Amino acid sequence: MKKILVLHGPNLNMLGQREPEVYGTLTLPELNECLISTGKELELDVTTIQSNLEGALIDALQESRDWAAGVVFNPGGYTHTSVALRDAVAAIEIPVIEVHMSNVYTREEFRHTSLIAPVAVGKITGFGWHSYVLGLHALAELLIK
């Protein structure tokens, strides 16, 4: 089985509590269970990590290049601000799929710009927690080639 990192950025530990009208009621532990289960169906060994700290996310990305075949990454609010995360994604040289639960293009204008997207292999946005599942499916397809 190919090993995959699912990396959750800031505030995703608040899933189920924070703005349920935007992000739904599924909690992060419930989402992680679903992703690990979906991974097994796709013959992927999924490891999940969440951090509110930019440096910890960078460390996780850098370390993943030694053990993971790819990453599904929701950088949260850092999407629009972090050149350091963008550079980490570019440096690890494994496929990264950017995901967002909300449709960032229907929200505030500052959310329309992603610093991560230009160095990711793709971006999935607006399907709630299913964005992550779609990201796993996309990564599985990429890794088959």
Text of the CATH class? Alpha Beta
Question: How many separate structural domains?
Answer: 1
Q: What would you call the shape?
A: globular
Give the CA-CA distance, first to last residue: 15 Å
Largest sheet: 5 strands, parallel
Query: Per CATH, what is the topology?
Result: Rossmann fold
- DSSP E strands, number: 5
Order of strands across the main sheet: 2-1-3-4-5
Average of the residue pLDDT scores: 94
The parts where pLDDT drops under 50 for at least 5 residues are none
SSE pattern:
EHHEHEHEEH
List keywords for this structure.
single chain, alpha/beta, Rossmann fold, five-stranded parallel beta sheet, 19% strand, globular
Overview in brief:
The chain is α/β, with parallel strands linked by helices and 145 residues long.
Structure description:
- With 145 residues, the protein is of the alpha/beta class.
- The protein has a single domain (2-144), classed as Dehydroquinase, class II (Rossmann fold, 3-Layer(aba) Sandwich).
- Helix content is 37%, strand content 19%.
- It contains 5 helices and 5 strands; from the N terminus they run E-H-H-E-H-E-H-E-E-H.
- A 5-stranded parallel sheet has the order 2-1-3-4-5, sandwiched between helices.
- Helix 3 runs parallel beside helix 4 (83-92).
- It is globular, with a radius of gyration of 14 Å.
- It starts with a strand and ends with a helix.
- The model has no long low-confidence stretch (mean pLDDT 94).
